[in-house]
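Researcher: Go.
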Amino acid sequence: MTRVLHRTGVHDAAVDTDPHWRMHAVCRSIGDYLFFAAPGESSGVRARRERAAKQICTTCPVLMQCRAYAHANPEPYGVWGGMSEAERNATSSTPTITGS
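Model: Structure:
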């Protein structure tokens, strides 16, 4: 059975000038189920899922590139760069990437 995700992010070459960072993302080998909400997900399940996703993000070598991408595009759904959509919406500035 294929799961439908609420992912609307589109690669924007003007914003994401070096998409190769994605090749190094820890989440590539995990799957979307932790990073995006399932339809009808309860708040308790959401909180546990987001905590688990954010924990994975803390080990990711491209955390800041991911976070900057999500802020710049902006990604309306999911955990990106260790931040939920609510956390990204609460911040008004785009993080700066230092180094690669």
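Model: Residues 41 and 47 are 10 Å apart (CA to CA).
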